[in-house]
Write the structure tokens for this entry.
Amino acid sequence: MGSGHQHPHVAAPPTERTLGPSQPASVVLDIGAHAGALVLYANEELAGAEIEIRPGWGAWLGTHTAIRERHVGDGVVYAGVFGSLAEDTYDLRLKGGGPGSPRLTVDVVAGAVTEVTLLPPAVVSSDPRP
């Protein structure tokens, strides 16, 4: 005879874990006539930060990437990668925004990798856009 019970099982909400350093050749870019990619360089102070992206003036939909320690050749850089984005102008901020969140607007071009440096929050002025 089973020992069944009568309450529903609810899965715990997923949590995001902090990612460690990337492994060599661990980033895949899907670019071409349909899309470009975006690489965000940052300083170590932003390691682990989640950077959110939206098409310029669009809604923040929660699409994001983490700034991670990345081993490149004999060196280390801190960067986040959006591996495939439609050609457009994009706004970037710390996930969720808030006071002191860096804001940046970049143009992504199909078939190319756009590389930008994200400044620490103390250096970036506020942006009045929502």
Summary: Strands lie at 36-42, 50-55, 64-66, 68-72, 75-85, 88-94, 103-108, 113-117. The two ends are 59 Å apart (CA to CA). The domain at 36-120 is CATH 2.60.40.10 (Immunoglobulin-like). The chain has a mean pLDDT of 78.
